[in-house]
Amino acid sequence: MSTYKFVAKDLMTEKVVCVHPDTPIHTLIKILIKNHINGAPVVGKDGKLVGVVSKTDIIEYDKKTSIKRVPVSKISFYSDTNGKQKKAFDKISKSKGFGKTVVKDIMTSHVITAQADDTIDRLAKIMYDKKIHRVIIQDKGQVLGVVSTLDILNAVSTMGYGSSAFVTEEAILDLQERLETAEKSIQSLRDILSKIRGEK
User: Assign residue 107 a region: left if phi > 0, alpha if psi is -120 to 50, beta otherwise?
Assistant: First the structure.
């Protein structure tokens, strides 16, 4: 059975919590906690996607100097699915020192999107190439939904590819770690080969 049976609109979560550029940070924190999410798309008054913001962006923001520190990852919204910085966020969420800081001060304007009719294969390639766990589905700048690696693996599990059991997020993260380790090993081998070739 071909994986092209599914497209983004079949897999995506449609009820996406979005915030606005002028949303105060303390309000953003409440929204993330209330909805149990790690981040949200940022949309303008016209509903057009202008960026993304995540818990990591909040943690990395230096409220003392009112500047955004150099982020560990510019794609934290797309990759932080298991709350790696949960403790740090829990601590900073109780802070009242954000003053007049708003979402546009800390958001990432770089957005990674796909179309509603993109196939599951296309979505998987985007996630693999960009090394991310979720992608925003949009149409003419309007946010339609979000597709995660979990959504894709759950779809694949119903197609006869191995077990049809529910694929847990822990399993996905474990696979991601294995892939990252493999990538590092491959890169190390490439570096060694490059040095050997350079010595000839």
Answer: beta
Contact by Cβ (8 Å): 19, 53: yes
> DSSP code of 70?
P
Beta-carbon contacts of residue 174 (< 8 Å; ≥ 6 apart): none
Cα gap 179→174, rounded to integer Å: 9
Domain boundaries, the chain: 3-164, 168-200
Task: Give the separation between CA 73 and CA 88, rounded to whole angstroms.
Answer: 16
Kindly report whether the global pTM for this prediction surpasses the value 0.90.
no
In degrees and rounded to multiples of 5, residue 30 shows phi and psi of: -65, -40
Work out whether the CA dihedral 20, 21, 25, 29 comes out positive or negative: positive
The answer to whether the beta carbons of residues 121 and 155 sit under 8 Å apart is no
* Token pair of 17 as six digits: 């919590």
Gap between the Cα atoms of 103 and 19, Å rounded:
8
CA distance 125 to 32: 28
Pick the CATH number of 3-164 from 3.10.580.10, 3.20.20.70, 1.10.150.240, 3.40.50.720: 3.10.580.10
Radius of gyration of the chain (CA): 19
**Tens digit of pLDDT for each residue in 86-134?**
667 777 777 666 778 899 999 988 889 999 999 888 888 888 888 888 8
